Amino acid sequence: MLRIHIAIATVGRPALLREMVDLIARQTRLPDGVVIVAPSQADFGDAGESAMRPELILSPKGLCRQRNRALEVLDERTDVVLFLDDDFVMAADYCAAIEALFASDPGIAGITGNLVADGVRRGGFTAQQALDLIESDASGLDPAVIPREALYGCNMALRMSLMRGLRFDEALPLYGWQEDIDLTMQLARRGRLVSSGRVTGVHLGVRGGRTSGRRLGYSQVANIVYLLRKGTIPRWLAKRLFWQNLAANLLRAPFPEPHIDRAGRLAGNLRALADLALGRIDPRKIERM
Fold first, then answer.
1. Which structural domains are found in the chain, ordered by start?
2. Would you say 174 and 210 are in contact if contact means Cβ atoms under 8 Å apart?
3. Which of 143, 167, 254, 267 has the smallest count of CB within 10 Å of its CB?
């Protein structure tokens, strides 16, 4: 039997965090432990009182820093670490499904779920809406196991024996945009990455606690340039992300969606492009913006 631990990095959303941790108790195969990593005690709220009895760990702020702290804490203690965003709702058989897949093929290095829905693209869901979507739609997903080039960071399970020496890049600060691509493209050199409709859930896409539009806009350019130079993002994906985000921010800035700061993102894009032209682009600049 594999040891499976859930790791959640969080900041600024204690009520949502408690709700998500409580929902873990619905799993038909309970995890062997839950680790929550946050910059301050206030970020935990009362999550420690959940029936899941999570381990609460403090860390400097930043998704990559917090996830690295979880890896440090769980080293030698688990076979699989399941990284979840603090607004991800798993289907009830999620942990059972990843255990079965990892056990069936020792060559699998990482698994990400095929989502029932992603609130990032639809303005966000409530937890109850997520549960309803899972109830109505999860059974219709394709159960086939599909190869992946990289995993989606909102829900990704990693085989710890193949993670030796790999860490999230802390040069991608705060929200760590594309940190999942960076890490899992490296992990893919050691084993197979897959997804399947057997592993699923809903990403709520809750906006509170995320980085500002201006900072994210800067990251949309700076992080791509950084990862291209590092060699951990395919050129085709880098081009697609760059042009897709720049075009969306430019075209929608005059008439933005209610939940997206398009003007801020565009301003960040333009500042990053100016820094690129001047040879001084750096993802870490958002910490001073």
1. 4-203 (3.90.550.10), 213-288 (no CATH)
2. no
3. 254
